Structure formats: C-alpha cells, structure tokens
C-alpha cells in the first residue's frame, strides 16, 4: 500500500506582510503515521489549518489532493465531511457536558430532532472502548484528566468516520504514562487503517512511532524522510529543523557583566488545572548585571510558567523555591512586590496580558509606574505627558501622538510601549517573554537594540524565546528548559542551534 | 485613524459619543423651543437639573462601576432604603438631620462595600450579587414601614425648600449644587488619581491590569462602595425632593441610571467613557420628560418609549467604535 491518501502541492499562504508558507509540499501515504517537525513558528500549524479548511480555499495558493481527488475546503465542516479531523493542542471540549455528549456534539444521535440518549450513551461506550477510555459515558469532562480528554477527542473523531486524523502536539500536556498510552492507541488506529499526521516536538516519540517525517523550516518544506528506508536519528531531524545560516540580523554588542542580581534556586511550580503535575521542576538560574541571559525551550517546556510564577505568583499553585536579589533572599507574593523589588516581566501575549488596547499610549506607558508620577494618589498629568513623550522619541514609537490608541499600533510599536512601561518602573531585572513575537524583521532589529541598551545601562535581562537564532544572536549565556527542568547552561561561545535543540528535546535523565 | 475630521476641526474618536449626546441635547432643546411657547428658557434646563439631581448622583456611581466592566442593580433599592431610614429616624426618635444624613451615607457605602467584597473575593458576576442586594435593600424598606413616612423636620424641610437665586430670575435647589459638586469631584478623581486610572485599566483589560501590578481587587471593591455612597446620597437628595420616605420610591431607577450612562457614551464592557457623558445622558432623559409634559396630551409612558428608542440608537452607534478598537 503505497498509494498516497493526501498530497498537498505548492502551498503558499501569505498573511499581511508575512509569508507563512512558501511552496510547501506534503505527501502522506495511506495508513501511515506521518510526523511533521519544525521549530516553533516554522509553519506547521498554518499548514494544518490550510488542510482542515480553517483557512478556506482561495486564501492560499496551491493544490490539495485527498483520496485521489482535488478538494477545495471552505470550512472545517467541509474537511470533516471528507474525513479529515484535526485535534488541536487546546482541546475543543465543552467542560460541563458529559463524555458522550461531547463525542456527539454537533453530530447528535437523534430521531426527528429528539436526542436518543440510550443510543448516544451506548455508541459512546463503544467508541470509548476502541480508544481504551474506561469511564462512564455520563461523566462530565471537567472530572477527567487531560490525558483522558485527549482520548475523548479521538473518540469524537472516530465517530465522524475519520480517514485522516491530525494531532497537533498531542502529548505536550500529558505525563509519561498518558503519552505512552496515546502512542499505543495511534499504533492501534494504524492497524485499523486510519492515517495519522502528528505534529510533535518530542523527537523521541517521533522516532518511536512515525513511518515518515516531513521537516518544515521557515515556511518551506526541507525534506521528507522515510523512517524505514533511511536511518533516521533524532540528530538527523534536528539538523534538518535548524539548518540555516545566521545572517546579519543582530546589532553587534559587547556586554560588560557585573555581579549577580537575580538568583532562583530549586524553583518548583505545580499546574493549577492538573493537581500534582509539576510544570516547573527544581529549576535554578542566575542573571548578572549587564548580562543578557536566554531561556530556551520548546512549547510546553515551562518557560512562561517559570517567569510568571517568579513575577508575583501570577501562574501556578504550590510554588516552592528561593529567590535571591543582590544576594539577599526576597519573598514575592504579588505583582506589586515584584515591581518593588525591581523585577519586570513583559508578557508573550501583549494583547491579552500586556496592554490595555482601548486606551492610549500615554496611559499604557504610565500604568505600572504610576506611583512615581503621583503624589498622595494624585497623578501629575504634565509629568506623565513628558515621560510618555520622552519614550515616544527615545523608543522611536511610530504613532502621531502619545494620545493614539494602542490597539491600532503595529506589533513592533506595541512592544515598544510595553518595554517603555516596564522601563518606567526602573527595574534591575527585566524578563522579556518572546519579545519579538509577531513583529516584522525591521522592528525586531530595533527591539534587539533596545535590549542591548538596557544591558549597557546595567540591567539584568532574561530573554525567553522560541527562536534559537534570536537567542544565539542576542544572549551572553543560554539556559535550556525541558519538561520543567533546566537541562543545560551554554555560554555564547559554545552555543550552536544543534546543541541547544539537543538539550531542549532531551529529558534530564537521558543527559547523564 | 484616531480622529474624525469635521471641516477644520478634528475630534478624537473617543470623544465622539459624548459629542453626539451633547448635540442631541442641544437639538432637542432647540426643537422644543420652536414647538412650545415658554420652552426656550434657562429655567427649563435648570428644572431638568432640579428634577433629576438624585438620578445624576446615582448615575455618577454607576459610571464608576460600569467603567470597570461591572454593573450595579441595587442602586434604586438603596435610594429607597435611604429615604426610608432618613424619614423614619427623623420622624420617630426625632434625630437631627446632621446625624441622620451621615448615618444614611455610611449605611449605603457599607452595602456597596459588602457587595463589592463578595464580587471580588468569590469571583461572582456583579449582576447576580447586586441583584441580590437589590432585593435585600428593597425588602428592608418594608421592615421599617409599608407606608410612606412624611418628613417634617424643620431644618431638613427648610434646606430642601431653599432657592438659590442665580442671575435674572433663574434659580436652583441646593440638591443641584450638591449633585454638581459630586460630578466635579468624581470627574477629578477619575481623571487625575491613580485610583481613577486603575478603574479605566481594569475595565479595559483586567488581566493586563493585574500583570501591571495595579490594585485590581481594591479597585473593584472601591467602585461598588462609591456606587453605594452615591445611591445613599441620591436617596438623601430624593428625600429633599419628595420630603418623604417610601419603599416604593425609585423603583426602576437602576435602569434609568444605566440608560443615562450608556447614552452618555460609556461602554458597558468597561474601559471607556466620561462623566461629562453621564451628565449629558441624565439631561437628555430629563429633557424627554420635560418635552412630554409640555406636549400635554401625551401619556408619561411615552418617556419610556423614547428612552427605549434612544438606547437602541446609541448601542448601535457605539458598536463600530468598540469593534474597531478591540483588535
């Protein structure tokens, strides 16, 4: 059976200003498990959205051939009708409804509009047996763990007579047992003749389960490897994922590094939604004055969770560990404490967590450092205007006035507003989470220059980024984080993408 | 595009709803003046203030709450309860007004504080908490008495009937002065204090406000306390106006207050709006009543019909702004 169930040919997808996919080709043989690998932002999810009709026909160029026929999907409904089901990383289940109700949601077992509950629960039980889910079909979704919820999603796909099942990072949020069970299930589905496409960062799983691997980098297909024919190792995949030359995208910078400013020891954070799961596990790191330190890790490694739990416990429960500032232990209970101790955190999701989009530049800049602009609760508006105008010029924020509404600025300019806001609080430590996400290349260079300038002013900077070249071009030292643990610390001279990717994809036990 | 241009003048988009409400008020006044004899006088406008001073104060409190993205349904009942407490304490044990009025204000603020605390601490929708507060306060009125209690305290009635003469035969009541002071103080607080900034930031994006280290919890509790205080003060002003306390006073006033705030251009989702808009909103509502009374033959229920139509228009008017600004 070598017939291709799916061929995507010459797929090009353009967003305003960005070419997300360029001439991508993907061929999936019938009945195989096909893995798609690539760095964060390489275009994997975009490709799957094109395939599943989230981006309807006509919004991309290229051709999709499914089951030997050219298909033009206008919506997810069309693609599901054809037998393609996509399971996203964020599960799309309704938490208050039962397992059975979720499985048949939008596809109810009904006669003349009246739901047949016996049939619903009976058929749900059958499907649950197929995926190895031992629960009562009437149990509500919020009562079962993420691992089992994943199985419900698969059962739901099976109920729709799926021919091609796409799983986006299916094991990212699962523990080892649940992951192993899921992989077994996928093997079982392969026996039943269901073709699977999985997107995964966990290369050990990819090598264990996939029949073929397609590697995508910067929106282009690099290669498709046949796991049976070629001798494919994890290192082979890594070199395909990162193999690009560094060009002149970073301003030159020489850091003058001083004494230690921030030290985190034995930092452990538990997930608020899954009791008992450690999102950050005994992590420790230091940042020194004038130093730019990188924190690398794949999605779900716990980078943001580490940063937010340090920044006033804004993420996680049951947090333990020590924080030292200038050598002295400090306790941070909330964001106000963090700001008082000179720690600032610029979030990865500017629009949701970083800005008040419906307010103007001036007030967004002053929001966190308003204390310094006010006496006894009264805001000095002249001073505020002057300060905002100062940042408007020094940060080169492209907007007519500081009274412009922030929601209308470009990503790069919004990020400059966020940085201005934190600089105003006069921090000693800046934690920048994905500082250049969703920003075009020119503005990235400006942001890098600003980061270098901050380090030159003696601030300690911790940069979290999914883009390895960015970390390599910017940082003096890079920590790698994998599954909540620090798996390595690499100095700038010794850092290569391959080495970092190796550390990021390995669990700690494999290191020793 | 952050500004619309009319000829040479340019107005930032955020001021547009207020501007529209202002123009509407002027247009209604001019139309009334053309249609009815004796309408186009300064006293007509002042009477709108005199007849709606209490609503204005209540709407000020409501503006704070709505700016944070919340809602306060209890205000009408708290107004009624305040009139009831004030009247019963002055008539029964004969307490003097300068003891009764502060006590009433304290009780109103306390009720608001408790509701705000429940909303914040237990993370419950403001709608349901203040609905409970609304039933509670209205019910408490009837534990004091089921009938209307007249207020005959000499100081209180004398103050209530004082006429403050302006120029050229124009006059206002002391309530109007109190209401305008409240408006001025509130506008100043909203615009020039850290608390005011927190109110806008919380309504604009609560999650980002939290991550900026703004005191979101304290802000939310405070706005309900402010609203409780304003309701109690509104109740005192209504007592001046009615010279009685009654459990059926101010039925449905919470909805008038919300209507005034929305017509004044404040977004129900929070984050944008101005107190000046709320003042104009109250004036528009008051002017509708005045026009209908000048018309003479129209039933007063027509007021509701016009308010309903106006609300529809204003909600639709706001839609494009809120849609465009939010990404």
- What is the radius of gyration of chain A? 25 Å
CA distance, first residue to last residue of chain A: 42 Å
Cα-based radius of gyration of chain B, to the nearest Å = 20 Å
- Placed side by side, the strands forming the largest sheet of chain A appear as 6-9-10-3-11-12
Counted beta strands of chain A: 24
CATH class of the largest domain in chain A, named Alpha Beta
* Integer average pLDDT of chain A: 87
The span between the termini of chain B is 13 Å
> What would you give as the CATH superfamily of the largest domain in chain A?
P-loop containing nucleotide triphosphate hydrolases
Helix content of chain A: 25-40%
Strand content of chain B: under 5%
Q: What is the CATH topology assignment of the largest domain in chain A?
A: Rossmann fold
Main structural class of chain A: alpha/beta
Number of helices of chain A: 18
Q: What is the count of distinct domains of chain A?
A: 3
Poorly predicted sequence stretches spanning 5 or more consecutive residues of chain A: 508-512
> What can be said about the biggest beta sheet of chain A?
6 strands, mixed
Task: Describe what you observe in this structure.
The complex is a heterodimer of chains A (512) and B (327). Chain A is α/β, with parallel strands linked by helices. Chain A contains 18 helices and 24 strands. Chain A has three domains: 4-242, P-loop containing nucleotide triphosphate hydrolases (Rossmann fold); 258-342 and 427-512, Rossmann fold, CATH 3.40.50.300; 349-426, no CATH class. In chain A, strands 6-9-10-3-11-12 form a six-stranded mixed beta sheet, with helices on both faces. In chain A, strands 18-21-22-15-23-24 form a six-stranded mixed beta sheet, with helices on both faces. The radius of gyration of chain A is 25 Å and the shape is globular. Residues 508-512 of chain A have low confidence and may be disordered. Chain B has 327 residues and is mainly alpha-helical. Helices cover 71% and strands 5% of the residues of chain B. Chain B has 13 helices and six strands. In chain B, the strands form three sheets. Chain B has a two-stranded antiparallel sheet. In chain B, strands 3-6 form a two-stranded antiparallel sheet. In chain B, a hairpin with a 5-residue loop joins β4 (164-165) and β5. In chain B, α1 packs parallel to α12, α2 packs across α8 and α2 packs across α11 (253-263). Chain B starts with a strand and ends with a helix. The A-B interface holds A 311-312, 314, 334-336, 338-339, 345, 347, 351-359, 363, 366-368, 370-371, 374, 377-379, 381, 400, 403-405, 407-408, 421 and B 1-2, 12-14, 192-197, 200-201, 204-205, 207-215, 271-272, 322, 325-327.
């Amino acid at each position: 059976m070598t017939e291709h169930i799916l061929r995507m040919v010459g797929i090009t997808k353009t967003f305003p200003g960005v070419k997300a996919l360029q001439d991508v080709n993907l061929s999936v043989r019938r009945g195989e498990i096909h893995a798609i690998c690539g760095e964060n932002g390489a275009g994997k999810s975009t490709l799957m959205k094109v395939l599943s009709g989230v981006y309807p026909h006509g919004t991309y160029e290229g051709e999709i051939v499914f089951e030997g026929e050219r298909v033009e999907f206008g919506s997810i409904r069309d693609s599901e009708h054809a037998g393609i089901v996509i399971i996203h990383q964020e599960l799309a289940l309704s938490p208050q409804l039962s397992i059975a109700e979720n499985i048949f949601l939008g596809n109810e077992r009904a006669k003349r509009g009246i739901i047949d509950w016996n049939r619903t629960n009976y058929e749900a039980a059958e499907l649950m047996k197929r995926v190895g889910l031992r629960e009562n079909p009437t149990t509500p979704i919020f009562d079962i763990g993420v691992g089992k919820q994943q199985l419900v999603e698969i059962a739901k796909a099976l109920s729709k007579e799926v021919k091609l099942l796409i799983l986006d990072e299916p094991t990212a949020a699962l523990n080892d047992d649940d992951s192993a069970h899921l992989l077994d299930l996928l093997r079982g589905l392969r026996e039943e003749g269901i073709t699977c496409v999985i997107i995964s960062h966990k290369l050990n799983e990819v090598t264990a389960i996939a029949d073929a691997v397609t590697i995508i980098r910067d929106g282009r297909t690099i290669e498709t490897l046949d796991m049976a024919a070629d001798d494919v190792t994890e290192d082979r995949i890594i070199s395909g994922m990162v193999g690009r030359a560094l060009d002149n995208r970073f301003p030159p910078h020489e850091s003058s590094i001083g004494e230690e400013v921030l030290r985190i020891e034995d930092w452990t954070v538990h997930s608020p939604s899954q009791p008992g799961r450690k999102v950050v596990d005994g992590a420790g790191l230091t940042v020194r004055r004038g130093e730019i330190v990188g924190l690398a890790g794949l999605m779900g490694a716990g980078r943001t969770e580490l940063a937010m739990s340090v920044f006033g416990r804004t993420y996680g429960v049951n947090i333990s560990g020590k924080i030292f500032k200038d050598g002295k232990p400090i306790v941070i209970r909330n964001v106000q404490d963090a700001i008082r101790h000179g720690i600032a955190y610029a979030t990865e999701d500017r629009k949701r967590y970083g800005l008040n989009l419906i307010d103007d530049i001036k007030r967004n800049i002053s929001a966190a450092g308003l204390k310094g602009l006010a006496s006894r609760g009264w805001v000095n508006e002249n001073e505020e205007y002057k300060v905002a105008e100062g940042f408007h010029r020094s940060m080169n924020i492209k907007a007519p006035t500081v009274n412009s509404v922030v929601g209308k600025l470009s990503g790069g300019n919004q990020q400059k507003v966020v940085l201005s806001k934190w600089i105003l609080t006069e921090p000693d430590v800046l934690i920048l989470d994905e500082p250049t996400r969703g920003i075009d290349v020119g503005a990235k260079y400006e942001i890098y220059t600003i980061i270098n300038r901050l380090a030159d002013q003696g601030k300690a900077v911790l940069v979290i980024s999914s883009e390895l070249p960015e970390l390599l071009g910017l940082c003096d030292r890079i920590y790698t984080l994998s599954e909540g643990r620090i798996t390595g610390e690499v100095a700038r001279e010794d850092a290569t993408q391959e080495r970092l990717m190796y550390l990021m994809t390995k669990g700690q036990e494999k290191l020793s | 595009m952050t500004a619309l241009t009319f000829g040479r003048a340019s107005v930032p988009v955020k001021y547009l709803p207020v501007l529209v409400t202002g123009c509407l008020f002027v247009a209604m006044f001019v139309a009334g003046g053309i249609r009815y004899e004796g309408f186009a006088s300064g006293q007509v406008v002042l009477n709108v203030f005199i007849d709606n001073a209490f609503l204005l104060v209540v709407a000020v409190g409501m503006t704070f709450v709505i700016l944070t993205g919340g809602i306060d349904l209890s205000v009408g009942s708290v107004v009624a309860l305040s009139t009831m407490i004030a009247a019963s304490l002055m008539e029964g044990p004969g307490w003097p007004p300068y003891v009764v009025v502060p006590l009433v204000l304290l009780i109103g603020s306390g009720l608001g504080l408790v509701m705000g605390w429940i909303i914040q601490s237990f993370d419950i929708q403001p709608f349901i908490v203040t609905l409970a507060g609304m039933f509670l306060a209205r019910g408490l009125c009837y534990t004091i008495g089921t009938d209307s209690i007249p207020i005959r305290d000499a100081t209180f009635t004398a103050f209530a009937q004082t006429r403050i003469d302006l120029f050229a035969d124009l006059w206002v009541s002391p309530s109007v002065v109190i209401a305008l002071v409240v408006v001025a103080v509130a506008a100043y607080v909203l615009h020039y204090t850290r608390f005011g900034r927190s109110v806008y930031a919380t309504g604009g994006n609560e999650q980002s406000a939290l991550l900026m280290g703004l005191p979101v919890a304290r802000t939310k509790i405070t706005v309900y306390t402010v609203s409780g205080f304003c309701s109690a003060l509104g109740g005192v002003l209504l007592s001046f106006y009615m010279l009685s306390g009654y459990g059926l006073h101010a039925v449905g006033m919470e909805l008038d207050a919300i209507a005034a705030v929305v017509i004044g251009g404040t977004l129900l989702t929070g984050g944008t709006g101005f107190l000046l808009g709320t003042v104009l909103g109250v004036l528009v509502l008051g002017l509708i009543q005045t026009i209908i009374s000048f018309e003479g033959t129209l039933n007063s229920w027509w007021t509701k019909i016009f308010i309903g139509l106006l609300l529809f228009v204003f909600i639709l008017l706001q839609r494009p702004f809120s849609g465009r600004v939010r990404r």
